[in-house]
Design goal:
about 140 residues, Alpha-Beta Plaits, 2 domains, 4-stranded antiparallel beta sheet, 7 helices
Length: about 140
């Protein structure tokens, strides 16, 4: 079982393009989130395949959207902003976070600004500056 779980990412890479999400939700919200998000994605990206796995016991999920069979990588990946908005809007609506154990990093910096108030972002910057005044640790990352 463990080997199956550990090889999901590699299998997805070999299968084709994916739009990946690292999210967290209250455990009690997961069933409704899954149903609503699957329905919304099916309407927006017909034929897309959902690959959801991760740390269900603590609410952290890898919520990946794989290209439909035969779709070109470029055409499918052009839908990344749409897929992100669908997934992240529902995550936030269910009291979750658009990032789980992998953090915000660089890929979600702009997304974070969509979901957090300016004061929250400023507080994050201040904490980072207090812990790393020279900007040497994890440069370019939010926190």
């Amino acid at each position: 079982m463990w080997a199956l779980r550990e090889n999901i990412s590699e299998a997805q890479r070999r299968e084709g393009p994916n739009i990946k999400h690292d999210i967290s939700l209250p455990i009690s919200a997961i069933p409704d989130f899954l149903a609503e998000t699957e329905s919304a994605l099916a309407g927006a990206l017909p034929g897309a395949v959902l690959v959801v796995f991760g740390h269900l016991g603590d609410g952290n999920l890898h919520y990946n959207v794989a290209a439909p069979a035969g779709a070109s990588a470029q055409d499918f990946l052009a839908n990344t902003p749409l897929a992100n908005r669908i997934v992240h809007d529902r995550v936030v609506a269910h009291g979750g976070s658009i990032s789980a154990e992998h953090g915000i990093g660089q890929l979600k910096r702009d997304e974070l600004a969509h979901y957090k108030a300016p004061l929250e972002l400023e507080l994050m910057r201040r904490i980072k500056a207090a812990l790393d005044p020279d900007g040497m640790l994890n440069p370019g990352k939010v926190l």
